[in-house]
Queue: 2 jobs
Job 1
Amino acid sequence: MLERIREGAQGPVAKVILVLVIITFAFTGVSAYLGGSVDDYVAKVNEREISRADFDRAYQNQRATMEQQFGEMFNLLAADEDYMREMRAGVLDQMIEEQLAIELAAKMGLSQSADSLRRAIRQMPEFQINGQFSNDIYLRQLSNAGFSPTMFRDYLQEQMSRVALMQGAFGSEFVLPNENERLQVLQNERRSGKYAVISAANFFDDVEVSAAEIEEFYFENQDAFRQEEQIQLAYLELDFNDVIASIDIDEDRVRDYYDNNLAAFSSQGSRSIAHILVEFGSDEDAAFARMQDIQNRLNAGEDFAELAATESDDIFSGADGGDLGLLERDTLDPDLEDAGFALSAEGDVSNIVRSEFGFHLVKLTELNEATTQEFAEVAEMIRTNLAREEADRIYFERQQELARITFEVDHTLDEAAEVLGLSVQTSPWLRRDQPTEGYDAPELLRQAFSDDVRELGLNSELVELDERSLVVRAAEYQAPRVLDLAEVTDDIANYLREEKAEQLAAERAANQLEALLAGSAADLEFTEITAAGRFGSELPGAVRQQLFRMQLSESANYVQVTLANGDAAIVALTDVLPGVVDPEQEERTKRQLEGQFAELAYRSLMDALKANAKIERRRL
């Protein structure tokens, strides 16, 4: 992540993204942070508290991010208390580092200009309608979140200064040409040699395992043979896709719908407006007189955009000639909207309008007339929507019937299957900890292992998945248990034989290696390695790693390694070809090194700040 930030740290896109990250955090709640001291806090950094409320919000944001990344698999992670404890500690540590960076930025005098803050606010999607900044939305959002513009500006100032500090730290890292060259030489190095494999499989038939050894292994490794509870389900499944596939909507019905709902296929047109605002201030009469003066100047021929830039109290829209963007109902003050919709031609300007914010002059800057889509353009969409609407109704009715019958006749699925024309299906064996794909929905597993299904043999409640509804019951159930010795004897025997075979292969390899180092011929079949790269998959991983660990020498150079599958191997290095500098890779390797240096710099900076800070952590 640090490398990516470093790569684009100086670009405008990166700065916008960083600002949006800040604002996302802000609108999940920083009122306690902005509003003053909070008695209940999780940490204190140089006397500044991190409230428990802010920590809880940051932690929930992290959980939401993890759930989005991992989906239903996150439920397994969340069940691990140690993992979640580490995640909570990581969130707190990140908040502490952010506070330390804010304090350092303040000490260094880093600050953002008013123009920079204004531009950042205008780019935030929270304050936009159809991609355009809305001053009205901006004020309402702040009010709803409990912020004043001044409080929000101060918070944004701190966060943008922190980001500027981090960008400066990353941007200060550089790579010397010889460092870049050395990395390429190492990465592009090629090595030649040979290797021979002594397969454990060759010794498998020569190995014997006694009953005593099997029994001893069994009793010493009971946990390895513990089988979790598992269940095999009988179930009825109602699939929405089957329902919708059975529905046919004829052309007359599609045409009737179109004719009766023309408004749905007609655009009401769109219009964009600009405004000039004069706030009430302490003297509403004076504000009205000032707006009358602006109106007179406009009637005298002065340009609306120039007057908005110089006279409007709306500093954001004023910089853009008063532009408020696309006008839609229920997005602005009602009086302002009414004035905008009352204008009939581009360039028209309203009379003075009073709103809760002050007095306005509203100009219609763009007008697009209404249009109606032709029947042929929307016929297929109508047919699809009608089919889905009817399928929704039928699916819901069948779903409720399925739930009713299986509840009233709770000891079998046969009656519901006959009434609804469904067939009883059977699942594979299912386990809580290793659910089978297609049967791994948390709600399905909860019902499958419920007391009613597992112990009482009853039908489950209706399980509603994305576009499927199921009712399940136990076909067979096995409680948790340690498998009997007889059930695992063959598996243990094979495991012990493989283990002994691998040991014999290693011993054989050691004898062959000793002979090779003594200068004797070895009874081995070597595979030649020619100019192998440091990265690749054509060689066994252990062979490649060992090949690039070895030093080239004039005398025989052999080493024994164990492969991932348990086989033994002997590796020899015969030649080293230094890597060649590739100009096309120069920028990539430079970014790679800079990213590593930037990460080291960041960690060093944070370690130093933490060492010199007074940090108090409370139990989470």
Job 2
Amino acid sequence: MGWYQEITKEITELINHELPEPLASPADLVIPPQRELGDLGWPCFAVAKKLGYLPGELAEKLVTQLSTKEHPAIGGWQAVGPYLNVTLRGEVLINKVIGEIESAGSQYGSINSGAGRKIMIEYSNVNTHKDYHIGHLRNLCLGDSLTRLFNFSGYKVIPVSYLNDLGIHVAKVLWKLNQIPENELPHKNLGHYLGELYTQAAQELANDPVGQELVSLILRRLEAREQPEYSRWQETRQWSLDYFQKIYEELDIHFDQTFFESDFIDEGRKLVQEMLAKGILEQNEGAILANLESEGLGVLLFLRRDGTTLYPVADLPLAQAKFRDYDIDESWYVIDERQSLYFKQLAAILAKLGFNKPIRHLSYGFVKLPTGLMSSREGNMVTYEALREALLTQELREVKERHPEWSKEQIQETAWQVVVGALKFEMVKVSPARPIVFDIPQALSFDGYTAAYIQYAAVRLASLERQAKLKGNGSSTLIAQPNELEKALALTLTRFSEIVSQASQAMDPAIIAKYLFDLAQEFNNYYQKVRIIGSSEEMGRLRLGAAIRQVIINGLALLGIKAPEVM
């Protein structure tokens, strides 16, 4: 338990001591809208009604009683309308929070709400033989941030990816690839090239019944592992895997395991036959499906009329294998909101099989461009390659302008840190349930709700640390008489673990993003108004600055973003 948790607990214990029964809890405490009103406030509404008082009357009564009590961290009590507000002693607050941050370092703010529970988070569920686009990035960045957040919250997290590597989309790409002479194939970026072929194939096949029949034949031969289609599939699948791995490495995202749809097809076909025998599935005009109409979940198709498989054939045995092979407590799926019905259907079928393990769908909204929605089939999407190039080109130009004296390597490294920050922050700064409109110029802006704004605050703080080291300032002195801005910053820092807890419970990294933005704003306001280097409180203020930077570093790390030394 950190100092903030301890002091809020002690404050409510003091309040409860003056009440006929314990009716106040730390969770009730709020931060007053104006600092001069106090540092923490307890609303009296519900308790006053229960005890037969007016809220303001109860607050006044409690101030009279509590003002006679001594507490080393409490400077005073006051009644503000229906609130009982408490003011903390600034020197105690500063001393406690800086001490905790310096002691905990990169673990400051971590909690143990998970208590070692083992969870598997499945994300980046993309199709091989298609391009990686901006919509996939939300899934990737959200899943990675949730993995980091829940590890920081005491869970044991197993991050996994599941690739749909065998389906009608693959057959369409191979159909198109068969039309291209070997000597006309590109020599690099082959995974991206497959995505282009898919878009071409989808458009050409729309009005080509003969081509559609050929695609169906290719898919049947693939599922039967027949040559030469199977060898061509293995070769081209690797093109996609190499392409995806390059993206993961660039964005510093790691998986403990990658599952493939193709590895579960045979087991899934056997399961389909078992479910047919049990009456869970039924045949309908040659197709095999689950009729879930009575449960309000429609119809879920397993096998097409030509005998080829659809997603649930592999998804069902995979869901079972996760618990069987990894001994997990829960299985979580980061899947966009369009799959909400499918996920409910999958859970319903698993229940009919007697499989009642805890699985959870973490849904999220679309990524849109200012021009609207995207579709890989229509070819109007922004690919990862295009987005990366646009962001990096713009940021390289801006870093060169700011630092013409820098080396090419330093410019590249700094620009890339800003680009990665922009990519990830834009994908997690909005709560998952809400859609995102990705605006490239705004994403790199140093003003507004962006990663660059927060990163630049960390850069300013790093600059202060460098100045202090040049002056040989390594003192452990604290601020003797903290002002209101310093007290406010310290209070914000103390709340970091509470923010982590809120984000963990809500499964929402946007709560971390908003906290970091508010902290950066608070520091920038302080930086503009209060002299640090050369002031009488220089050493203590530098320690406060170092503590702020550590919390920004820790918070950004939960979003998968680095805090640069320079920008």
